[in-house]
Amino acid sequence: MRSTIVTAPRCSAASRHPRPVPDQVRVALLDSAAIYHRGVELLVDTTDGLEWAGATTSPSDMLSLCEFAPPHVLLVDSALDPEFQLTRLVSARRWWTAVVVLARTPADRAQAARARQDGALGWIDRDCATGELLAAIRTTLAGEIAEISPARAC
């Protein structure tokens, strides 16, 4: 079964600040697998309007990358930020970085809601199709919530 992106307006304090729309959207990735880094990098590099900002395997390294050159969209492996600490830190900064959590296991609604409460704008299966990942990037960049269909989030 394929996931679908559902959207809703962002409802956090950060949404009151207008998000600049860049010509080239910088995308960064926090993930433990080098093969996943390479796959997402290739996807970003071959998609018009997207630019690869880099990948790390640790939250502290990602925070350093974000402080040096904040990405517009940050994809975060749920296994590397299980308590959403990085998500909170990045979302609290005025970088206008949209965080998308890449869920390794089927999400329950409470976990997805907690990620949103901690600042994530997206929640999608880590094993999603490339088109779904691109849709999540575009949706969150617009300041809207992107998540897997509630039917899949059981």
The CATH homologous superfamily of the domain at 23-72 and 84-100 and 114-147 is named: Response regulator
Q: Span between N and C termini?
A: 13 Å
Structural class: alpha/beta
Nearest-integer average pLDDT: 84
**CATH fold node name of the domain at 23-72 and 84-100 and 114-147:** Rossmann fold
What is the tally of helical segments? 5
Described by the principal axes of the CA atoms, the overall outline is: globular
**Helical fraction:** 25-40%
CATH class category label of the domain at 23-72 and 84-100 and 114-147? Alpha Beta
Largest sheet: 7 strands, mixed
Cα-based radius of gyration, to the nearest Å: 14 Å
Strand order of the largest sheet: 1-7-6-5-4-2-3
- Poorly predicted residue ranges: 1-17, 150-154
Proportion of residues in extended strands: 15-25%
User: What is the element string, with H for helices and E for strands?
Assistant: EEHEHEHEHEHE
**E-strand count:** 7
- Assembly state here? single chain
Proper CATH architecture of the domain at 23-72 and 84-100 and 114-147: 3-Layer(aba) Sandwich
Question: What do these coordinates show?
Answer:
With 154 residues, the protein is α/β, with parallel strands linked by helices. It has a domain at 23-72 and 84-100 and 114-147: Response regulator (Rossmann fold, 3-Layer(aba) Sandwich), CATH 3.40.50.2300. 33% of the residues lie in helices and 25% in strands. It is built from five helices and seven strands; from the N terminus they run E-E-H-E-H-E-H-E-H-E-H-E. It has a seven-stranded mixed β-sheet with strand order 1-7-6-5-4-2-3, with helices on both faces. Strand 4 (73-77), helix 3 (85-92) and strand 5 (98-103) form a beta-alpha-beta unit. The protein is globular, with a radius of gyration of 14 Å.
